[in-house]
Amino acid sequence: MNLNSQTYSSNRKTKIFNNPERFTEGWYWVIPSQNLRVGEVKPVTILGRELVIYRGKDKRLVTFDAYCPHMGAHLAEGKVEGNALRCFFHHWKFDAEGMCVDIPCLDTPPSLKLQTWPTAEKYGMIWVWTGEIPQQPLPFVPELEDKECDVAIHSHFVMNCHPNVVMINAIDAQHLNAVHKLPIEIIFERQELNENAVIFSNIIPIKDNSFFIKLIRIFYKNAITYSVCYWYGSIGIVTLGPDFFHVHTMFAVRLHEGGKAEGQILLITKKRKGFFGWLCNRIVLWLTKIAGKFFLMGDIQVVQTIQFDLKTPIKADHSIMQFINHVEKQQSLMWGTWQEGRSRDVENKPKRERWQDKMSND
Predict the structure, then answer these.
(1) How far apart are CA 109 and CA 205, in angstroms?
(2) SUPFAM superfamilies, alphabetically (predicted)?
């Protein structure tokens, strides 16, 4: 069987990938950090769950379930007092751990605790972990780990397809050649960063068939980097450029109502010192913005109308199938409740069939 020309049908079902009722446990963006000042409280709805988030006097971020356990008043109507939050309706007060510490009409409040969610900041965004204890770090650009960065929040978007479908665009070799005309014969090599993160790196040098590439070759002889780092199946970080000049674009996406994708685009570069370093970074972020527009060009219309169904995968879809398998191995949570997701396939079969990393002749 010639895998370059033949296709085969697959009836395998996925429990997380492209499932509008499931998502992977992990870190998800909430709002830009600059949108929440000290002493401010805001309502947010993430992955179908209503939350309230505030920044205390100590600048610490706190996220609770949205409604007061007394009579169900929305806590975003309340007021931040020091590092605690007081409900507007009957003035019950909750500390940063969610414990009720004051009820005006009682000498001693009852022992009750709000559901809290781990919250942190990175790359100019506020992030919430959708479980009790974070199992992995906040998403980061691998080559900029532990380095200070300059970040520009480029744009917000909503697309009519699942976040996982948005993610695969960056490793769809056929799409990169057909739509974007990249001068690359793309073959990705996969590297597991951890159980929730995977890196796909192109290992084929760029061809010398364009004026821009020929110009670069005068100064630079090595292969130009094109890699994508995925976190939790819904955050993709694209790194592009020669070794001496990489641009990094993060597509931070979360599942939206109706199985849609809601996301933020972040432009990231390492921090450089002094005025000239600041000026250099403004130029780098501007060039990153141009690169991002190049990759989005022609894609928006497709992802707004696509009804994804990979019935006939071919050899060129190898990296996409690897990505699907990577997502399927992660912890599944249910939309709205954030409870552990269990599919009928899992309940009825002792072993679930997984997408295969390699094409077979079966």
Answers:
(1) 67
(2) ISP domain (SSF50022)
